């Protein structure tokens, strides 16, 4: 049997594939250190687990509305009001099975065959695939290293055509950890407004911001920016709830209603128990969120200093998220490899360190190192990479 054409161009998530390979090697008894993870290494805070458990004991184990529980929508509305100063109605919020699923649903309802979506590189691996699955065409705009991997208004202007439907802004960014400032967002946003381009603002790393850096949502810049923006967020990274699968979108009522209709025929609703956990995540104490942020920041500062000592490695210091995105082009050459992909393979097989090659994110000279693991493992891994690069020399 032939499969549908839509899967022809589909590439499986490379980040999940490398993590799986590292796990397999580990199960064979090899001392692999995995730096591929895209999830916090802390358990979900106890109060959230308790609230979810309580909800099941109380009998809240049935279907909910397709767009999510009204109580959870209320908690999200309060969060957006408090954190961003934005006001949304319940009909402008949809909860889905993680931000990934929310994005998938969004592209399904806004894209027609041939519509273009601007994706700045380096990008999160699922954006291009989701756009293609919805019949859209990803248009890549290079966030240059010298501009902290961010795109400029000039670049955006020249990428827009009469087919451009949307742009994805992911700040703080996976994989680069960079953050767009308010002024940068305003400049990009103006162009989007002028050309009627929807801004898909993926703010999943909002709570993981370091030093003097600040997260600003493009929607909070002005009411007209809010009109042109759909915010994507969730509890996965902020509350260490990746396995619970709860994310949301906040935006135009018509888009949200269409997304809810689609969800009603695909998933029915996000898992009821997880929604009760997420209500507690937003309404309960936020101390664990800040504690986790501080732990990430401490690791970042220590590991960054060690990483840049590796010969040939250049690294912009990340401002948020939990990834380092060093340029390893020269280091790969020093170690005798033709390219960074080859180095990454050898690192896994010979140095027993799993990292994700930048080619997965559209910038093949880099590697992505996740510091969502213990400081001890991180230090050991960076030492291994260091001596691997030097020894091969
Ligand atoms: N957006 C970005 C940039 C991410 O890195 C991730 C997860 O890795 C997601 C969205 C999806 O998060 P979730 O589906 O767990 O809410």
Automatic annotation (TrEMBL):
<dbReference type="GO" id="GO:0006520">
    <property type="term" value="P:amino acid metabolic process"/>
</dbReference>
<keyword id="KW-0663">Pyridoxal phosphate</keyword>
<dbReference type="GO" id="GO:0030170">
    <property type="term" value="F:pyridoxal phosphate binding"/>
</dbReference>
<comment type="similarity">
    <text>Belongs to the class-I pyridoxal-phosphate-dependent aminotransferase family.</text>
</comment>
<dbReference type="Pfam" id="PF00155">
    <property type="entry name" value="Aminotran_1_2"/>
</dbReference>
<dbReference type="InterPro" id="IPR015421">
    <property type="entry name" value="PyrdxlP-dep_Trfase_major"/>
</dbReference>
<dbReference type="InterPro" id="IPR050596">
    <property type="entry name" value="AspAT/PAT-like"/>
</dbReference>
<dbReference type="InterPro" id="IPR004838">
    <property type="entry name" value="NHTrfase_class1_PyrdxlP-BS"/>
</dbReference>
<keyword id="KW-0808">Transferase</keyword>
<protein>
    <recommendedName>
        <fullName>Aminotransferase</fullName>
        <ecNumber>2.6.1.-</ecNumber>
    </recommendedName>
</protein>
<feature type="domain" description="Aminotransferase class I/classII large">
    <location>
        <begin position="31"/>
        <end position="385"/>
    </location>
</feature>
<dbReference type="InterPro" id="IPR015422">
    <property type="entry name" value="PyrdxlP-dep_Trfase_small"/>
</dbReference>
<dbReference type="GO" id="GO:0008483">
    <property type="term" value="F:transaminase activity"/>
</dbReference>
<dbReference type="InterPro" id="IPR015424">
    <property type="entry name" value="PyrdxlP-dep_Trfase"/>
</dbReference>
<dbReference type="InterPro" id="IPR004839">
    <property type="entry name" value="Aminotransferase_I/II_large"/>
</dbReference>
<keyword id="KW-0032">Aminotransferase</keyword>
